[in-house]
Amino acid sequence: MTDVTPADSWTTHAASTAWAASGPADDAGVRVEVHDVTAPEGDRFDYPVVHLPRVAVALVVRNGESGEEVLMLRTYRYPVNRYGWELPGGGVDDGEEAWMAAAREAAEETGWRPRGHRRPLIEFEPLPGGVSTTVHVHLWRDAEPTGEPLDRHEPGRARWVPVSDVVRLAGAGELLGAGTLVGLLQYVAESTTSRQ
C-alpha cells in the first residue's frame, strides 16, 4: 500500500556521495549523499541523506523472582557522552538475517544467548527525515548463559532489569538509542493490551 500521491512527489535530479566509510560489504558502511532535489512545492535544493547499515536488536525477557525481567546493558556511549541502559544489538552483516544478528549481538555483548521461540517485535526507520536505516527488534522469552561477553568494544555490564521499571527509565531519559526505547515501549504496550 502506498499513500504517496503525485502532489507529494519529489524529483531527484542528481545524487553524489559526499563521504563514505567502508563496512563489511559495499552497502554496510556509512555513506553521506547529497541529493539535488525539487520538493513538491517546487523548491529546488541540496538534500543530505545519511545511509547507515541495518540494525538488529534483541529484546530478551524472562520470568524472574519479582516478575518479568529484560536483559539490558548499562553502558557508556561516547557520541552522547553519557551512561544509560540499552538492549543488546548492532549491525546486520551482509547475508545475515536480522534475527540472527540480534541473537549474535546479545551473546557477544552480554554473555547470554537468546533461545527458544522468537518473533519479530517491531521494525522501524528511526530518523526518516535524513537518515536511511532500518532497525529490527526481535523478541525472545529465554536465554542461556554463555560465559563472559566477547565484544571488548562493548564495555557495558549485562543486567536483568524488571520490565516494570521500563516506563520509569524511559521517562528519566535512562534508555539510550531508538531501538531500545521503541522496542521496550512496544513490548510494554503489547503486554498491557494483552492483559486487558
TrEMBL record:
<feature type="region of interest" description="Disordered">
    <location>
        <begin position="1"/>
        <end position="26"/>
    </location>
</feature>
<dbReference type="InterPro" id="IPR015797">
    <property type="entry name" value="NUDIX_hydrolase-like_dom_sf"/>
</dbReference>
<feature type="compositionally biased region" description="Low complexity">
    <location>
        <begin position="7"/>
        <end position="22"/>
    </location>
</feature>
<dbReference type="InterPro" id="IPR000086">
    <property type="entry name" value="NUDIX_hydrolase_dom"/>
</dbReference>
<dbReference type="Pfam" id="PF00293">
    <property type="entry name" value="NUDIX"/>
</dbReference>
<protein>
    <submittedName>
        <fullName>NUDIX domain-containing protein</fullName>
    </submittedName>
</protein>
<dbReference type="InterPro" id="IPR020084">
    <property type="entry name" value="NUDIX_hydrolase_CS"/>
</dbReference>
<keyword id="KW-0378">Hydrolase</keyword>
<feature type="domain" description="Nudix hydrolase">
    <location>
        <begin position="52"/>
        <end position="183"/>
    </location>
</feature>
